[in-house]
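Narrative of activities, Objective 1.

The group set out to show that a structural description can be obtained from nothing but a protein's sequence at a throughput compatible with the screening campaign. Below is one input-output pair from the validation batch, recorded exactly as produced.
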Amino acid sequence: MLTTETEILEIIQNLPQPALEEIRIFLDFLTWRYQKNPPRKRGADMISAMRGKATTGMTSDEILNLTRGKD
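Output recorded for this entry:
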């Protein structure tokens, strides 16, 4: 069965107020879930800002040894 937009609007207009609130919440969720450009996480922004900035010329092992301290 194919329901047109007009028929859907007619059905929605005849619903009681509590049901309309549930529909609004559901539509808000769909809008958030399927947005074209989802917001990036703060951590991803930080990593993007740091990427390619290291210029020490040190290897990962050398950096790890510096951060661990002396045994």
